Amino acid sequence: MMQTHMGKAQVDRPSARLSLAYIWVAYAAFGLAALAGMLQGMVRGGLIELPSWTNYYQILTAHGVLMALIFTTFFIVGFLLSGVAKTTGGSLHGTALGLGWIGWILMTVGTAMAVVTIVTNDASVLYTFYAPLKASPFFYIGAALLVVGSWFGGFAVFSSYRKWRRENRGKMSPLFVFMSVTTFVLWLIATIPVAVEVLFQLIPWSLGWTSSINIMLSRTLFWFFGHPLVYFWLMPAYIAWYVCVPRIIGGHVFSDSLARLAFISLLLFSMPVGFHHQLMEPGISPGWKMIHVILTLIVVVPSLMTAFSMFATFETTGRKKGGVGLFGWFKKLPWSDVRFFAPFVGMLFFIPAGAGGIINASNQMNAVVHNTIFITGHFHITVGAAVALTFFGVSFWLIPVLTGRTLTPTANRMGMVQTVFWSVGMFLMSYAMHYLGLQGSPRRTSFTTYMDHPLAVGWLDYQRVMAFGGGLLFVAAILLILILGYLTFFAPKGNTEYPTAETETEQHTPKILERWPVWLGVLVLLCVLAYGLPIAEQLTHNPPGSPPFRTW
Amino acid sequence: MHLHRYEKIWLILGAGGLALFIVLLCVNAFAMGMAPPSNMEMIDPTKVSETPPFDNPGLKKISDTEYDAYMTAFAFGFNPNKMEVPAGAKVNFHVTSPDVVHGFQIPGTNVNFMVMPGHINSASYTFEKPGEYLILCNEYCGAGHQVMATTIIVK
Ligand SMILES: [Cu+2]
């Protein structure tokens, strides 16, 4: 529908309302999660003690669930739906809108169930809910609703994609849509194993219908999902890097076909790799572990492609604006525009994050850092910095687009301050975490000196640095919510552009990249090869099962 | 599909480096015998305290320089609680859990593995330097997780 009376909206009202509903649940969860995170940092630094009605592991569960599962999933569904609406003509059709709202309702109900069980201390099992720790069945049901709800977000994207292709026969789909479809294909397939775990193992067992559980199998199913989950966070950030950031700096997409190829590779190689999270576990032979290690490391290739594309776009754009010499183009980039600055800082964080990831995934090196706070430091610079800063950068323009308002220069400046606070906080905290992890300090552990063991006492100074970083992050989180509240309700009315870049010249993207049956076939084959035999083994040669335990 | 010349170079160098790295990992794991702890032995988790040798956890001397340490990791401690070995001794740790999943880590060494109910996991380490080594649980196991630790004294 044309909205001639109020200028050309980038996304029509019904679609905008849907996206905004997702994004605000995301930021409500983010705010609570940030509070829980800050308190954890303070406890671990030995600066405060929690009141008797709560405990460290309860707020750790809240932080993990709200930040890693709820904030990310809601934001991603909201962001991708908005971009699909924008790039397929400015609106979602009736079916897609309906699916989108069903998803939102299921996810919100699931979130409420999870939060209530965490608050009543019936689910202090952390967001990885490892059996045989047994949470309230409502916690698992809530998690299942969250996942199933997000599938409906994916169905909404697929239905828009199908409609677009019907109406534009023979044409390549818009890059944003293609990437959103890839992201949700990954998500749908990746969540099947965890759905199996929750529905067939955890829920019946936590309700008492079955007396014991095959732990090895539950962990394998969890990590079958748990690693692609990381790519479900990362790919929407990549979409913003590939499609939105080039437009913000006044440039073009470097190469349409390479961008699509990178996404297909991410889809294929992020799935059959879960054993690299289980390298230090018994019951999986070293051969299978090595196969997953190799497949994991192959993901380095699409990451290298992405790095090249990003910097190629930056350089071409900078040169076109008159930047000369080897690095002159660098100065021509819009450093004072938070829509560019925040995701750019995120990209910088991703460089050490990738290096850390290689360490974690590598067999023997993993023994040094496994389950130490190094791991916590690692995912705080991947998800907490690279992905989160990109999502913040997106929010600064997406919320004005959706509310029909504008990002004022003052709000932009506040956003810059917020980005700096978040980055410095994240840098200090994760630096301390990486350092402590290499000394052997464990993750997921409340304040302790292990009966004043000199080694553990020596960790205290760095734990205080972590706490200080956490404090800065909390300030940045509050500031962010204030800015986003302003952009939602108070910023001046106006038209804000939804930045989506095109390629500079007509490019011929190979048709094969859009043949889904081919890629799904390859993916299923890879998963069967990587998981078929080990899972068959875990089903047949498994030890007697475990009864449930509540140890908190 | 067009690949920029610099991109080709970039990807060839990257993928080549990666391939070399993978070969080194394989050599390290299989030729040099440094595969991660992947013990395949199983045990009934509800009968750990009745199953030898875990019915009587502790150090078993193999020779003057080698010991087997049979240990259980439970919420929230390790059994045995104190162990003493001479400097230069190689200790083979064999650990299982009668309840939930725990971690087993000795900071400053490469001993770091998961202890899962139903399985026995193991790793070896030669303690060259005397001292009091901390053994801690690095997987969340409940409200008292932070106190779950013990020591091994090397004299
Ligand atoms: Cu433990």
UniProtKB/TrEMBL annotation, chain A:
The chain crosses the membrane at residues 20-39, 59-84, 96-118, 138-161, 173-192, 229-249, 261-279, 291-314, 340-361, 373-399, 419-438, 465-489, 516-536. InterPro entries: Ba3-like_Oxidase_I (IPR033943), Cyt_c_oxase-like_su1_dom (IPR023616), Cyt_c_oxase-like_su1_sf (IPR036927), Cyt_C_Oxase_1 (IPR000883), Cyt_c_Oxase_su1_BS (IPR023615). It is found in: Membrane. It is a multi-pass membrane protein. The keyword Membrane applies. Residues 17-484 form the Cytochrome oxidase subunit I profile domain. It comes from the Bacteria. Keywords: Electron transport, Heme, Iron, Membrane, Metal-binding, Respiratory chain, Transmembrane, Transmembrane helix, Transport. The keyword rRNA-binding does not apply. Belongs to the heme-copper respiratory oxidase family. This is B(O/a)3-type cytochrome-c oxidase subunit 1. It comes from Brevibacillus ruminantium.
From TrEMBL, chain B:
The keyword Metal-binding applies. It comes from the Bacteria. It catalyses: 4 Fe(II)-[cytochrome c] + O2 + 8 H(+)(in) = 4 Fe(III)-[cytochrome c] + 2 H2O + 4 H(+)(out). InterPro entries: Ba3_CcO_II_C (IPR034214), CcO_II-like_C (IPR002429), Copper_CuA (IPR001505), Cupredoxin (IPR008972), NosZ/Cyto_c_oxidase_sub2 (IPR051403). Signal peptide: none annotated. Residues 60-155 form the Cytochrome oxidase subunit II copper A binding domain. Keywords: Copper, Metal-binding. Its main location: other. It is found in: Cell envelope. The keyword Metal-binding applies. PANTHER family: CYTOCHROME C OXIDASE SUBUNIT II (PTHR42838), NITROUS-OXIDE REDUCTASE (PTHR42838:SF2). Subunits I and II form the functional core of the enzyme complex. Electrons originating in cytochrome c are transferred via heme a and Cu(A) to the binuclear center formed by heme a3 and Cu(B). This is Cytochrome aa3 subunit 2. It comes from Brevibacillus ruminantium.
